[in-house]
Amino acid sequence: MKASLGSWIGWIGIFLAIAGFFYYPLWFGGAAVVLGLFGLTFPQKFLAWSAIVLGAIAFFLPMLQ
Fold first, then answer.
1. pLDDT reading at 1 higher than 70
2. Angle of CA points 59, 62, 65, to nearest 5°
3. CA distance 21 to 6
4. Were both Cys, which of 25, 26, 33, 63 would link to 20 (CB 3.0–4.6 Å)?
5. Which has the closest alpha carbon to 54: 39, 32, 34?
6. What is the pLDDT of residues 10-47, one digit of tens each?
7. How far is CA 37 from CA 6, 12, 22, 49, 63, in A?
8. Angle formed by the axes of helices 45-60 and 2-20, to 10°?
């Protein structure tokens, strides 16, 4: 159960980060980073770090324009 929950949290974080590239990047990117940080408590570290990195890019990308 714990591994499955960590996997779901990681994939939802990645999905929110990708959605953040197109809609409301501050909200979706921030949510992806938060889910990624929460996902670090589970064994799926790669999914968590992917959500954190993609969420941070989605969060800061509009500030560069």
1. no
2. 150
3. 23
4. 25
5. 32
6. 999 999 999 999 999 999 999 999 999 999 999 889 99
7. 11, 13, 22, 8, 22
8. 20
